[in-house]
Amino acid sequence: MKLSARNQLKGRIVEIVKGATTSHIRIDVNGTVITSAITNEAVAELDLAVGKTAYAVIKASSVMVGIDD
């Protein structure tokens, strides 16, 4: 599989929390945990499970900047 997105972070699934229609997938990438919200259907199609390797693919059209007051 090839993607145009350059931010592809390989990690291990550490938690899957299923809701009514959406699941929250937590992926540990070298000690940093990234959370993604995807449909329950996508979880089933990808056969996601805790302990499996997965990629967090990040494609952003904008980045916000903030500062402390």
UniProtKB/TrEMBL annotation:
GO biological process, one term: molybdate ion transport
Pfam family, one: TOBE
Top-rank taxon, per record: Bacteria
SUPFAM superfamilies: MOP-like (SSF50331)
InterPro entries noted in UniProt: Mo/tungstate-bd_C_term_dom (IPR008995), Mop_domain (IPR004606), Transp-assoc_OB_typ1 (IPR005116)
Gene3D superfamilies associated with the record: 2.40.50.100
PROSITE patterns recorded: MOP
Protein name: Transporter
Species assigned in the record: Neoasaia chiangmaiensis
